[in-house]
From TrEMBL:
GO terms for molecular function: dioxygenase activity. Transmembrane segments: none annotated. The keyword Secreted does not apply. The keyword Nucleotidyltransferase does not apply. It comes from Granulicella mallensis (strain ATCC BAA-1857 / DSM 23137 / MP5ACTX8). Residues 8-136 form the VOC domain. This is Glyoxalase/bleomycin resistance protein/dioxygenase. Keywords: Dioxygenase, Oxidoreductase. PANTHER family: BNAUNNG04460D PROTEIN-RELATED (PTHR34109), VOC DOMAIN-CONTAINING PROTEIN (PTHR34109:SF1).
Amino acid sequence: MKNPGNIRVTTIPAIRYVDPDQAIQWLKTALGFTEKAVYRSPAGIVEHAELVLGNGMVMIGTSGHNQQTAHWFVQPHSVGAVTSSVYLIVPDCGPVYASAKAAGAEFMQEMETKSYGGSSFIVRDPEGQIWALGEYDPWSKEATSE
């Protein structure tokens, strides 16, 4: 079905972590996310968490907690790679870059200016997920008019 342009769709990445509490803290400290909600099992396991950055969100869960779906996912460290990454659009990379540096983030790509617009950098979180941050916004008027 082709989207006729009047259907509103929101995309929210959902990532599972072995230690979601560590991931939540890292995302808050290194990249500036804030907690919207964290739902825990009676045993204290993170079943579902929602973190917000600007008008974007990422959902976090505990790897292997849901036995029905556990076999669908693999952790980056177990295979040495990821099959996707998350791109976060930020108005100014400088402050987020400084926060990531201060948090000891592993940089896959240092901050640089891109030929298609804005600065960007790429980091890997403690469990191996890759996060790209950039000022380039493909939804901006300038980007869509080219």
